[in-house]
Design goal:
By secondary structure, this protein is of the alpha/beta class. Helix content is about 40%, strand content about 15%. The two termini are about 40 Å apart.
């Protein structure tokens, strides 16, 4: 009988530190393949495979798309690629971002659940916001096991807390206990009664992450129109009721949790405010030039009109500046609160 031989691990801010403590507790003869997604800067190389190889007993690497899955290995996606699990092999995709990230934890977890069902063990480590919660629910729906790092121990408890609050998590553990638990679970046999019965909406979402032409062209989308626009492409968002979760996905596949959508909208509002302030500042500069020109030519009345326009623009720009300053840390996305580039070649985790 098959065992729980697919282990998927996701995290964000604080997860690299957690992984460095976790991987040494995984045995060299682990009869399972381990897949890891940590939010990293998309434009910079990451040395996470080398770091985890040095830290533990299992070799870690960036896989080649289509590479066969082998037990006793750790697979980590290169920057700006989703890590997907298919039946028997690993796949890399530049499909639509989920929760504003590529790679995304939900994408990995969901595709593993669709391909391997009860053979999957999902682990959520330290991180901001709630990427991984929807993917963990998919694992549970397909009969897998859910593990979360204890929020009391996590440097950033948002991701494990969200999973615990929204999914029937099987184990909430400190890092020292996660490795031995995974080793034990990987030797458990699971029932395998023929092909997996995968819910259609779960299958469709997994295919979208893989840029499947049929899934992208399908006019039907899970959920109902939400009356909101996608922050990434401005397309229509569809409201998906997923158990206790409310999620959103647009027609081309960008996906958001409620928390992430709120944070992304906050960033877009701030960008719009900065653009408005720039436009008003430029208007004030132009009005000042016109005012000076009119006065030099002895046209006082139009000069006064341009002076009033200049003052109005400056006042409006000052109001926007005050609003931007008053926002402070409000609505900040995980990107903002993440650690910066770590020394000694460590990857840059992002919330």
């Amino acid at each position: 009988m098959p065992t729980r031989d697919i282990i998927v691990i996701g995290g964000s801010a604080g997860a690299v530190e957690a992984l460095i403590r976790l991987v040494p507790t995984l045995p060299a003869d682990l009869p399972a393949a381990v897949f890891v997604v940590v939010h990293i800067t998309p434009t910079a190389p990451t040395l996470l495979p080398a770091i985890l190889t040095r830290a533990g007993n299992l070799p870690a690497s960036h896989p080649v798309s289509g590479e066969p899955i082998r037990a006793g290995r750790i697979y980590i996606p290169p920057p700006d690629h989703h890590l997907l699990v298919r039946d028997g092999h690993v796949h890399l995709s530049r499909g639509p971002k989920e929760n504003a990230h590529r790679p995304a934890v939900d994408t990995l977890f969901r595709t593993a659940a669709v391909a391997y069902g009860p053979r999957v063990v999902g682990v959520i480590l330290s991180g901001l916001l709630d990427d991984g919660t929807a993917g963990m629910r998919a694992i549970k729906r397909m009969g897998g096991v859910a593990v979360a790092q204890s929020p009391n121990e996590a440097l950033f408890p948002g991701m494990p807390l969200s999973a615990i609050e929204n999914v029937d998590v099987d184990h909430v553990l400190h890092l020292k206990d996660i490795g031995p638990t995974l080793a034990s679970l990987s030797r458990e046999e699971v029932d395998s009664n023929g092909p997996l019965s995968v819910p259609e909406e779960l299958m469709q979402e997994a295919r979208i992450a893989d840029m499947d032409d049929g899934a992208l062209a399908d006019p039907e989308r899970p959920g109902t129109p939400a009356g909101l626009s996608c922050p990434e492409c401005n397309g229509t968002l569809f409201d998906i009721q997923d158990g206790k979760l409310v999620r959103f996905r647009c027609r081309v596949g960008h996906a958001y949790s409620t928390e992430t959508l709120f944070a992304e909208q906050g960033e877009h509002v701030e960008a719009a405010l900065w653009s408005a302030m720039v436009a008003l500042k430029e208007k004030a500069v132009l009005c000042r030039r016109m005012m000076t020109s009119m006065r030099q030519r002895g046209h006082e009345r139009p000069a006064l009109r341009f002076e009033q326009h200049m003052k109005d623009a400056e006042q409006r720009a000052t109001l926007i500046k005050d609003l931007l300053e008053s926002r402070g840390g409000n609505g900040s996305h995980g990107h903002e609160a993440s650690p910066t580039e770590l020394p000694a070649g460590n990857p840059t985790p992002q919330g």
